[in-house]
Amino acid sequence: MIALKAVVLALSAVSALGHQLASRQPKRGCATEISAAQKDAVEADFAARRTGLPAKKAAPVTIPTYFHIIRAEETVDRGDIPESQVIAQMDALNAAFVNTPYTFELKETTRTTNETWFDVASPWGDDAVYQDDMKATLRRGGRESLNLYSLGFTDVSDGLLGYSTFASSYESNPQDDGVVFLYSTVPGGSRAIYNLGGTVSHEVGHWVGLYHTFNEGDGGEEWDTCDVSTDLVDDTPAQLYPTNGCPERSDTCPDVPGDDAIHNYMDYSDDVCYNNFTPGQVERMIAQMAIYRGL
Ligand SMILES: [Zn+2]
């Protein structure tokens, strides 16, 4: 019975992940999604507020960071990440953002034993109540503070590595703000290929206001056109679908100038492949953070 429930949950998770786990089966699963209607509204608001934004120098900004470890038991393979890996994750995050104004400073690590949160909390359907509970219990700080939650997603999906809220979502739902990710993706974790800390860097990319570099439509659906670049950043070329692995090069939109941004943190490549945010992405994150997080 328990096994059956796990299968049903996994199947519903796969359908919620949409194209990412269906057609081409890239292994990285990110469940950060936005509907087309929401995105239109958010981007109209952003464009209007950005126009009135005073020119801002990219001054260094320190972001208070709270690292919430949810464990099913007090063992590493049931989520109890050792402090050394917490530090290594913070280092990986700061290395990823080295060419941005942002430095993430660990304020507190919390450890909570809760098997239900560890196994089934997710953004989807009935299980969302568990992640809502978790965030209501643990979230610290205001709109300027990053809250990271490590979970197992054990009964949710094999492919899910993480998800985040966007900077622009804070105003309407402050309690939901933060990044949720698979505990074994921290540096030295057991999730091979994805255990250099790239998942947290990718999700924090959403948290500072970035979309995926590949083209997405409503709620993360795949687009079949290269005529648009749905991340609204000029220097990431149009890309038809996510990268899987770490190919030598890839160009899914050959009629549009520029190769796919396979080394960009907002693609789906393996951790070892990640090495940059573009100047256009940094420009967008500075405006997003100023407008929606007051930083
Ligand atoms: Zn993502």
Automatic annotation (TrEMBL):
GO molecular function: metal ion binding; metallopeptidase activity
Pfam families, per the entry: Peptidase_M43
BP GO annotations: proteolysis
Stretches of the chain forming a coiled coil according to its record: none
Stretch forming the signal peptide: 1-18
Keyword Signal listed: yes
Keyword Disulfide bond set for record: yes
Keyword line: Disulfide bond, Hydrolase, Metal-binding, Metalloprotease, Protease, Signal, Zinc
InterPro entries, alphabetized: MetalloPept_cat_dom_sf, Peptidase_M43
UniProt cross-references to PANTHER family, sorted A to Z: METALLOPROTEASE MEP1 (AFU_ORTHOLOGUE AFUA_1G07730)-RELATED, PTHR47466
Protein family (similarity comment): Belongs to the peptidase M43B family.
Protein name, per record: Metallo peptidase M43B, zinc-dependent metalloprotease, pappalysin-like protein
Species name: Mycena indigotica
